Prior knowledge:
By secondary structure, the protein is an all-alpha fold. Helices cover 77% and strands 0% of the residues. The chain has helices at 23-48, 50-56, 61-64, 66-89, 91-110, 115-133, 136-143, 149-177, 182-185, 187-201, 214-235, 240-261, 271-274, 277-307, 312-319, 321-336, 342-361, 369-396, 403-432, 436-456.
Amino acid sequence: MTDLAPPVARVTQPKLPDGLHGSARLWAMMAVSLAVLLALLDYAIANVALPDIAQDLKASASSSIWVVNAYQLASLVSLLPLASLGSRVGFARLCRAGIILFMASSLLCATATSLPMLAGARVLQGIGGACIMSVNIALIRFIYPHAEIGRGIALNGVTIAVGVALGPTAAAIILSVATWPWLFWINLPLGALALGMAFKALPETPRTNQKSDILGSFLCILGVGSFVMGFDELSHHGNVALSVSLIAIGLGAGIALVRREAEAPQPILPVDLLIRSDFAVAFVTGFLGFVASNFYIISMPFTLHDELGLSAALTGLLITPWPIGIMCSAPVVRRFADTVSAGVLSSIGLSVTATGFILLWLLPLQPSVFDIAWRTWVAGWGFGFFQPPNNRAMMVSVSHARAGGASGMVQVARQAGQAFGAMGVAAFFVLFAHEGAHACLLAAACVAASAAALSASRLFMRG
């Protein structure tokens, strides 16, 4: 007997276009770069003004550090929940919302009349920055064709290097002609330009229909925040009982989060990605790379200023070869990032970085400016060569549906590595007293070499 029932219609997702092309790609990448530059400039720009802020708001120098810490901590703890949110609302929408929040909080920063008000506004600013940074790599995956993702990530790395390099310089220029609130007023026209380009050029991306996980987000924020604050307190030889308690709370919240998210299709903490060897190796390699970089970035000014007796202006100038080296490596790595494995490229880059750090550690007692500059450039060149292939390895190892989680983990590797690198520097300064800055350079070399070895292990992994 013939079945005359009509066939059941199947709803299928439309095939996603393989990236943008021509002027559409150019404008979209400019929008992402400007948004990232906005977030990164303010990440570093306030450091230079801390003495002025403390004096104007009648706060102690130690308390004023919370102007920086509030931004960093808020950004770090909110990265993964926001990356998950981006998968639900769309990466372009979250980026635009982040720019709007960043501009509004910049207004609050500029008009703050007390340190608590400024620190609270910086928390909001950190969340706005995290909205941008948690999805920028995911957006690049939809802007560039699959075969050219490495090029887009390399360009993004240049933007990050420019932001890091311009932060202190921009702050110095602004403070030479205006007061510290103008460090935040300047974000309004820059943010308006970024927002206009984001509305015009960013591609709309697929969205999941998963419900919000409020408890999972809370556990993630509690776990990351407590863990980082506990280790930070410990690295400064603070209250041991408080440090241990915070670390224990962080571990407890982390375990609860892993158990809760283990079976979720779009987990806030992407446990399913971390148990994959290719993704996990890339994540830990990135984390160690940024631990090494912050061992250098934070300690080197002390070496130059305190140990070698160089002026503050010359110290700042001699840090500049680091981002210049990163920018110089971009044209080279862009040629190979999509065709040569990260196991080869990232290992080479990290080995070069470790060599640069060793050469800085072995500086003569009275080095010339050139002695310092070329060694710093070598370390920066290697660091720029390592990042794009490693970030690409994390992104292409997952499906489009998991791009948000992978993008969030790229930024977690960066910011968590920076945070733990800073803690390591603080601990070394306590342990080694006057030799702490010099010891940090050796530690930076050792961590970078370890990251290179871990990266090279990918060459022996089964495909």
